[in-house]
Write a structure and sequence with these properties.
CATH architecture of the largest domain: 3-Layer(aba) Sandwich
Order of helices and strands: HHEEEEEHEHEHEEHEEEEHEEHEHEEEH
Oligomer: single chain
Number of helices: 10
Strand order of the largest sheet: 1-2-6-3-7-17
Largest sheet: 6 strands, mixed
Distance between the termini: 40 Å
CATH class of the largest domain: Alpha Beta
Strand content: 15-25%
Structural class: alpha+beta
Length: 412
């Protein structure tokens, strides 16, 4: 096993902080305790931070919190964004290791959220602490850092609220963003891995309105469930859109509902679809292809296509795909920093699904990468993260900040 060239942030510090984060239960919609802890930890360690509170009155009636902050040198330079989420999925069955103890075995730390993505938040927090301690009076430019809630939930409310409120200038021009999601694990790539983009996606429902009749005389009715089956068959015939980096667009029927009345022709059915999209597609182009498929099905039911509700005027309810230019100068700097720390160049990948990072890299068009730890079993039992990979990510982010925000990385 190779040893990192630079080790400003020790394995002991990583274990200490990551174990503390893992010990706090934080499934989406239940993040208050971990937000309080993170805000306190940052401020106690010299990193300016605050709680950003928000309420969603459109879809969930949920009120939540994010932790955010920025350091501004007041001097010309790059504006860098560092981001992550502190919530987890709900605990599933099947665990054979302690879920919240930060249990360590064979170089891995186990626990819910240990990989996805308290490891990334830990890496950013320690990098910020070290950078501010050593360079707060000499750096240039500005660093924005945000730790969101509800990324794992149905709407990604935390990041939506940060954008809606333009917290710390999030919607202003930003040069580069690092989201510390576990890129190597997500894309099954060799660590260290820099993920240069991700597919987008939209959730839509096709609602079919037929006509009820007695099941003994079905010809007097219009069977909405039969029509749903015809529509699904036509959806399968839609040709995918191909992207040179993101691959092909995909659609998946995730729910079918209809009928239920005894001995009756069903007069209503609905088909719920998640549609992964690539660059060049939009909510309008997806609507048009679905409309065409329905018409080709030749159904008798009346129909409507309903996309998932947008939570604010800044969004259309979907996730915008994105790719970062491999020639981006800040990306080149991250590659150099990672190579310096890890002793080898990073691998590169593109993510095949969605996350809050789509709002940063897609909606806001900020050059964005996913750059995080290695491990396995995210969203499953016995989730674990390779501790050394967290150490390397944290030190790589620190070296990147030094390159970018000290004299040798000054933006002209």
């Amino acid at each position: 096993m190779y040893k990192p060239t630079y080790n400003n942030i020790s394995k002991e510090r990583v274990i200490q902080l990551l174990r503390a984060l893992v010990s706090i239960k934080s499934p989406y919609f239940h993040e208050h305790e971990i937000m309080e802890f993170t805000n306190s930890w940052l401020n106690e360690h010299g990193v300016p931070a605050k709680i950003h509170s928000y309420c969603d009155d459109v879809a969930t009636n949920f009120c939540g919190e994010n932790v955010c902050g920025c350091i501004d040198s007041g001097k010309p330079g790059h504006i860098i964004y560092l981001g992550g989420h502190l919530d987890t999925v709900n605990l599933c069955e099947g665990w054979t290791k302690p879920e919240y103890d930060g249990y360590i075995e064979d170089g891995y730390m186990y626990g819910l959220g240990s990989l996805d993505m308290k490891s990334g938040c830990c890496a950013i927090m320690l990098a910020l602490e070290k950078f501010i301690k050593n360079y707060k009076d000499t750096f240039t430019g500005k660093i924005i850092y945000q730790f969101a809630s509800d990324e794992e939930g149905p709407y990604g409310l935390g990041t939506v609220a940060l954008i809606k409120d333009n917290v710390d200038g999030l919607t202003d021009p930003i040069d580069f963003a690092i989201i510390a999601e576990p890129s190597a694990a997500f894309t099954e790539s060799v660590h260290p891995n820099i993920c240069l983009g991700a597919k987008g996606g939209y959730n839509y429902t096709i609602k079919l309105h037929g006509k009820a009749s007695h099941a003994a005389i079905p010809d007097l009715g219009i069977n909405a469930v039969d029509d749903a089956a015809e529509v699904i068959r036509r959806l399968r015939d839609i040709s995918p859109v191909i992207d040179e980096h993101l691959g092909k667009s995909l659609q998946c029927v995730i729910s079918v509902k209809g009928g239920g009345n005894a001995c009756s022709v069903p007069d209503y059915a609905e088909i719920e679809v998640f549609r992964h999209c690539v660059r060049g597609e939009s909510i309008n182009s997806i609507y048009n292809e679905v409309e065409k498929a329905i018409k080709q099905a030749g159904i008798k039911s009346k129909w409507e296509i309903v996309f998932r509700q947008a939570l604010s005027n800044e969004f259309d309810g979907g996730f915008v795909p994105f790719c970062t230019d491999p020639g981006n100068e800040c990306l080149k700097t991250l590659i150099a920093a990672t190579t310096k720390v890890c002793g080898r160049e990073p691998s590169f990948s593109y993510f095949q699904s969605i996350g809050d990072f789509n709002h940063i890299g897609g909606l806001l068009s900020i050059p964005t990468v996913l750059f995080g730890a290695d491990g396995d079993s995210f969203h499953s039992y016995d989730e674990r993260v390779k501790i050394q990979s967290v150490v390397e990510i944290s030190n790589s982010v620190l070296e990147f900040l030094k390159y970018i925000h000290l004299n040798n990385g000054r933006k002209k």
